[in-house]
């Protein structure tokens, strides 16, 4: 069953988020320490005004426990949602920081999605993708978008099988290349 996330889901979501976004987590946290990064991500997740917020997430429950999540938001909100992260990083580094723009304003963007390893292969990821696309359409968007690591050909094939196509944009984040993929939704 899918439901909107809550702040209390953080203990389940943050490990999944770390797995989903990989090295980007360290860039967003401003540290290379895994425990510290998880603590910082959890702080942002529990807040309501940034890209990592529980307010932007939905979870898949198995026996009332979140075992998968999808984090998505309107592309036009990205600058606003990134501001708290950028302010923290700017203070930490002592100079202005601007995060890489991952999406366009007219898109509904899937920032990250992950399913617990014990639950993979059961269609949970596909159900979360469908819920994300439905949410995009309900919010009036005609385009759903996501990024896929160019080295992850398996993930790209899964997205292509669900109707996503690469639009030719390559974005480098945390030293890794990501391909921008889009799908029309209605």
From TrEMBL:
Membrane spanning residue stretches: none
Record keyword rRNA-binding present: no
Keyword Transferase appears in the UniProt entry: yes
Keywords recorded for this protein, A-Z: Acyltransferase, Transferase
Alphabetical list of InterPro entries matching this protein: Acyl_CoA_acyltransferase, Diverse_Substrate_AcTransf, GNAT_dom
Protein's organism: Paenibacillus suaedae
Recorded superkingdom: Bacteria
Residue ranges annotated for the N-acetyltransferase domain, each copy included: 1-186
The name this protein goes by in its record: GNAT family N-acetyltransferase
One annotated GO molecular function: N-acetyltransferase activity
Record Gene3D superfamilies: 3.40.630.30
CDD domains: NAT_SF
């Amino acid at each position: 069953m899918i439901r909107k996330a809550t702040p209390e889901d953080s203990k389940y979501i943050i490990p999944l988020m770390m797995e989903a976004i990989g090295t980007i987590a360290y860039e967003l946290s401003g540290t290379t320490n895994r425990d510290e990064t998880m603590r910082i991500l959890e702080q942002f997740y529990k807040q309501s005004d940034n890209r990592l917020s529980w307010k932007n997430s939905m979870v898949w429950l198995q026996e009332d426990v979140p075992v998968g999540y999808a984090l998505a938001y309107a592309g036009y909100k990205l600058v606003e949602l990134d501001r708290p992260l950028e302010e923290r990083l700017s203070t930490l580094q002592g100079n202005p920081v601007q995060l890489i723009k991952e999406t366009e304003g007219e898109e509904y963007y899937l920032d990250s999605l992950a399913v617990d390893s014990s639950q993979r292969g059961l269609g949970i990821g596909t159900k979360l993708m469908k819920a994300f696309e439905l949410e995009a359409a309900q919010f009036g968007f005609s385009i759903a978008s996501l990024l896929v690591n160019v080295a992850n050909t398996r993930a790209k094939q899964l997205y292509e099988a669900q109707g996503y196509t690469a639009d030719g944009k390559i974005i480098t984040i945390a030293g890794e290349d990501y391909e921008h993929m889009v799908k029309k939704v209605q």
